[in-house]
Amino acid sequence: MANIAAQRIKREFKEVIRSEEVAKCAIKVELVDNNYTELKGEIAGPPDTPYEGGNFVLEIKVPETYPFNPPKVRFITKIWHPNISSVTGAICLDILKDQWAAAMTLRTVLLSLQALLAAAEPDDPQDAVVARQYKENLEMFKLTARHWTNAYAGGPSVNPECDDKIKRLVDMGIEEHQARVALSSYNWDLERATEQLFS
Amino acid sequence: MAASHENDSEMDCSDNEDCYEDYNDYYKDEDSDVEHVDPKKTDPEYFEYKCLSEEEVERLLNETVENLSNHLRISLPLAKVLLHSHSWNSIEVIRKYEENPQQTLISARIDPPCPPKNVIFSPTHLTCSVCVTLHHVDRFFHLSCSHMFCKDCWTMHFEVQINQGISTAISCMARDCVVLAPEDFVLKHLQHKTIIREKYQHFTFQDYVKSHPELRFCPGPNCSIIIYSKDIKAKRAFCDQCKTIFCFRCGCDYHAPTDCQVIKKWLTKCADDSETANYISAHTKDCPKCHICIEKNGGCNHMQCYKCKHDFCWMCLGDWKSHGSEYYECSRYRENPNIAHESVHAQAREALKKYLHYYERWENHSKSLKLEEQTLEKLRARINQKVMSGLGTWIDWQYLFTAANLLAKCRYTLQYTYPFAYYMDAGPRKELFEYQQAQLEAEIENLSWKIERAETTDRGDLENQMDIAEKRRTTLLKDFLDV
């Protein structure tokens, strides 16, 4: 690994640890290996959003040309968001692509991702299904995102109706996550989700 | 004896012509108005352009940059960025710059939207925020936005960007800063990196040419020629070097009378519908009279069954006689007049039928063009044989090649009339178009038939046919080519 990249990451690592956001438990980074090529990030779901109370884990891969090229970041924690793939966790965010600037840091990336959770951009979607729901039925989207936050990110909001529908599909022999995806995609219409799963 | 006599008279004639020309030269000034025919008015495909080498284009661009730099009293690199951001339109740059220089520099991303804060560099050492290393102030550089980074980081930044194919769009390394790095700044930081420097210069040149509406790279494989014309229209450009013919505006295969957008739509449609079109590509048809299987091995659509000698049209399998004179029915698609009242299925079927009608003809002429290339080879062999057996000289037969070239040109235009007709709204204009298209088609098939069968040196008849076909082609283009 190039010298600058390691040097920068070491420095940024300290910057995040010392930052005021860490004190407020809003962001966190951890080393995965000792040569600073891979890190684990964590962001707290911003308040007054469906992600509130959840903790979202990120995979951060540092390329050799860092910081002249952006880090490769994706969500490990499953999340329901128009700009994040509900399948792979891939993120659609300009600063992780062509709007990256060498003077940006891991801290700015994590804070930008947190801002993305607070303000989705459904017109520039990564997940078309989620984006459509966001635009056509915002309340349904919020309910679904809150439910996913509860199921995967340790969020506090329990929705018994959703859990019940999932349980009914699980009883039919469907795997839990698959059931959740199908129900989420069909606005929690049990009949249509069942139809899709068994077709 | 008769032949030699004819030759003599021809000689005389040409001598006379020469004299006549001298005579004209003598009175050139007075006569030029009368003699001169303006090709802009007579030839609908007339196009004034130049084939330039990369060096010539570089000189041309540099001249533009120098003129602007002198006019506005700004530096050369600055002039270059301004021109590039305004599609190389000097007049536009001058107008904007004289109106509001500050705003012009901001919108061209030369200056930052907000003036940078005045930072006083009292310390002798600074930490570069990219490599987090402490360096002496001398090692720091910045663009108009005053964002300071060390020399090594700038170099690395440029290297990474250039390796990703980015050149004129490299911006400052600071967060949210839109200021672009001008050419001289980039080159200054790549002083000892010859390969990357060359790469950068190659990419910037490509960017400049692509953003310049009067320049167009020749699309021919491995061709470095650039076509230059003040006439920014969908005209026929011909590359001197690799002989590629293409449309100056879109760079694709030349497509008159169809325009750039329509041909793109058509080609996409053809690519999408290739499955349905597959069945059409069968190369054989049965003779409508004796039902023997016939393979089409020439470009001409006037077929003669080798067994029963029945003359028929390859397109519609109808009797050729009915195609002969006035009306060439075969190229016109007859729409079902009651279509609006039919079911959705019937409408879909009708739409497919309509598309296939045009596609079949488009494909067929494209194939004919290729087959006629083979005919040309056969022609060459036959001429050789004729000359060897003493039937005329090589020169006597040359006109056949001219005829074959003209045939290719006419058929090419005919091929591109089909997408044009497909997207045309029904009405008197379409009727006129299809009438002219039918006329052109008939004359082309006549010409093709005559070329394939030119046995004697009956030059007059063929030349007459050539003239008719070309007239039909230019008439159609004059009426419908709108660029």
What does this protein look like?
The complex is a heterodimer of chains A (about 200) and B (about 475). With about 200 residues, chain A is of the alpha+beta class. Chain A has 2 domains: about 5-120, Ubiquitin Conjugating Enzyme, CATH 3.10.110.10; about 130-200, no CATH class. Chain A is built from 8 helices and 4 strands. Chain A has helices at about 5-20, 20-25, 105-120, 130-135, 140-150, 160-170, 175-185, 190-199; strands at about 25-30, 40-45, 55-60, 70-75. Chain A has a 4-stranded antiparallel beta sheet with strand order 1-2-3-4. In chain A, α4 packs across α5 (about 140-150) and α6 packs across α7 (about 175-185). Chain B is mostly helical. Among the domains of chain B are: about 125-190, 2-Layer Sandwich (Herpes Virus-1), CATH 3.30.40.10; about 260-480, Four Helix Bundle (Hemerythrin (Met), subunit A) (Up-down Bundle). Chain B is built from 16 helices and 13 strands. The longest helix of chain B is centred in the last third of the chain and has 45 residues, at about 345-390. The two termini of chain B are about 55 Å apart. At the A-B interface, α1 of A face α8 of B. Chain A: InterPro entries: UBA, UBA-like_sf, UBC, UBCD4_UBA, UBQ-conjugating_AS, UBQ-conjugating_enzyme/RWD. Chain A: This is E2 ubiquitin-conjugating enzyme. Chain A: Its EC number is 2.3.2.23. Chain A: Keywords: ATP-binding, Nucleotide-binding, Transferase, Ubl conjugation pathway. Chain A: GO terms for molecular function: ATP binding; ubiquitin conjugating enzyme activity. Chain B: Pfam families: Ariadne (PF19422), IBR (PF01485), IBR_1 (PF22191), UBA_ARIH2_N (PF26000).
